[in-house]
Amino acid sequence: MKNNALFIFILFTLFISGCSQKVSDYVEYSTTSSEAAKQMNSGLRYQDNVAQHLARESFQKAVDLDPEFAIAYYSLAQMHRDAVKRNAIVKKGKQFVSKANKSEKILIGNMAKDSWWGGEGGVDWSEEIERYNKLFPKEIRYINYLGNMANYDGDDKSAEAYYKQSLSIKENSDALNSLGYLYSRQGKMEEAKDAFERQINVSPDLANPYDSMGDYYLEKKDNKNAKEYFQKAVAIDSEFISSRRKIWRIDEEEAGNDISSTEWSSDSTNAVNAFMSGFWQFYNIHWSKAREEFEKAVQIDPEFAMPYLFLVFTPGDSARSVEAKKIAEGLAPTASQYERDMIEYYLYRMDNPDADLSSRISKLKTNYPYKSFVMITEAGDLYSKKEYKQAIDIYTTMWERFDFSPSLNMLGYANMQLGNMETARSAFEDYIYNNSMHPNPYDSMGEYWEKMEKYQSAYDYYMMAYTMDSTFSISKERADALEDKKTPVK
Q1: Cα three-residue angle 385-386-391, rounded to 5 degrees
Q2: Would the CATH topology of 3-137 be identical to that of 270-480?
Q3: pTM assigned to the model
Q4: Do residues 316 and 341 touch, judged by C-beta distance below 8 A?
Q5: pLDDT tens for residues 208-239?
Q6: CATH fold of 270-480
Q7: Quick one: CATH architecture of 3-137?
């Protein structure tokens, strides 16, 4: 997996390893526990190699070994995308800042300003990374991130120079991974293969190097070797879902099945992007934002039928829904066959709310077995008929095949309906992890905790949803309803 894919998400958190007792070539930690320092370094290695769950475990061990190791708390918090849990960890870490060394206090001061740790924001992390590189010139993490920044900006020459500088200090998996993808993008396939082989030699215990070599073979159109490396990645880390998805795609393609992305009838990329953004918001239960995106799509391309279809059944404007239905019906004959079939199905369902839709769904499945929209349609029908186990199978398959986190949300609710509360909780946790910047995952977790009669936890998650997006007013209403039930503050 290309580390650069995570660059935007983690840019503002890249400094964490700079926890030094003194300004020098390398960094040192303030902890007196050598084992805690070892776990800290292990966590950073896992973090840099797309093994976030292992990084969390190592950082947790670090704070368990040294409960006053402040910077380890902040590192642990970084690995928690769940803002409720993250804020609680930061709160613990703040108690021990006074015991940190001078460099750690500087770094923690910057962290406290950043919104990821509950601050107001405004920290220029690009500038800070350059600063830390000057303070600790042989710390390879900072050199690698300078390379990633150059890579992201399209400056291949500087990026390559930074990665080679890092490797001249120490052979490391992070630089080799980025260098391999840089060469692959440039068409330097032998150089790319060499980088990925070196990466495997450096980190044979991690999944990501094997996944990256699999990507190399995919680029070479060698599915056999690609699949073997993806299987090695999964054997090492069963949670490495990107490799599992690639194996599925290879199997389907070799079976002659068409799993290509949907080609929508609109010629406007901007209109399609707006529609897909609305689709995402719709299934994340954010009606107002979904409508905004659908309206944007039809404003760009007034003859794009699918956004009108979604305007029909997105709550919030009944008059517009009636108007959109007429337009969708009028445009359907000019749309693709797939779009026509989906429009026909959903308008029929709207006009016939009590009809048995099984035969219609079966026809859609036969014609479009690999379309996620069809899978959602079938699962939703089963859920509405209280056939939760069958719905769970579909939601699980959707998540395993496609990076569509709303399926985790419905997986959670379906398990709640069956009383599988631990499984439901795990699904909602995964939903937050994979969609942490959206309010709905927190609202769903709030409903879970309310169902469990853990009212303080429910209140915290509802309020986090509302804090993230004040237009998500339902969460505030649910939180207010728990005011008299939550744990009183002593």
Answers
A1: 95
A2: yes
A3: 0.91
A4: no
A5: 999 999 999 999 999 999 999 999 999 999 98
A6: 1.25.40
A7: Alpha Horseshoe (1.25)
